[in-house]
Every structure is written in structure tokens, then in C-alpha cells.
Specification:
Elements lengths: L2 E6 L5 H15 L3 E6 L24 H6 L2 E5 L7
Length: 81
């Protein structure tokens, strides 16, 4: 079965909440939603994240992107951009 990938980056949780609401709306319409996130952005190039986030959705994989029927993408503004 195909699914809609809801992919987001959220530093403080507001974008995560919006992504969760979008996923809920997708599922209420009868489609499958797959909620995924990405590792935190760091100013330190050597910083790494664990493979499993502490909170929220799992990290996205290449398979998630390759196999989705649609994509909802969200990220907060950073430094006014």
C-alpha cells in the first residue's frame, strides 16, 4: 500500500505538532501517513546524533523517500530565512 510521507525538522516542537496534525488529517481521509524526522542541525561539524531520536518520529530513510506516493515537507524558519 502506498503512503504519504510527512517529513519534518523541529527544534522546539511547533513544527512537529503541525506535522502530527497533517498526518492525522491524511489518515482521516483514508490514506496511510508515515511521520518521519531528520537529525538535529548542529553548528559543530563533528557532532553526531544517535540512530534513534529521543522523542518524536523515527529518522527518515532513503526507502521512506523512494517508496512514498506523496510528500509533505516542513521545517521552521532559521535566522529569518
Amino acid at each position: 500500500m502506498s503512503y504519504i510521507l510527512v517529513l519534518y525538522y523541529s527544534r522546539h516542537g511547533a513544527t512537529r505538532k503541525l506535522a502530527e496534525l497533517i498526518a492525522r488529517g491524511i489518515e482521516e481521509s483514508g490514506l496511510e501517513a508515515r511521520l518521519r524526522t531528520v537529525p538535529n542541525v548542529s553548528q559543530n561539524c563533528e557532532a553526531t546524533e544517535s540512530n534513534i531520536p529521543e522523542v518524536g518520529a523515527p529518522f527518515v530513510t532513503l526507502d521512506d523517500l523512494a517508496q512514498c506516493a506523496g510528500l509533505a515537507l516542513g521545517s521552521p524558519t532559521r535566522f529569518g530565512n
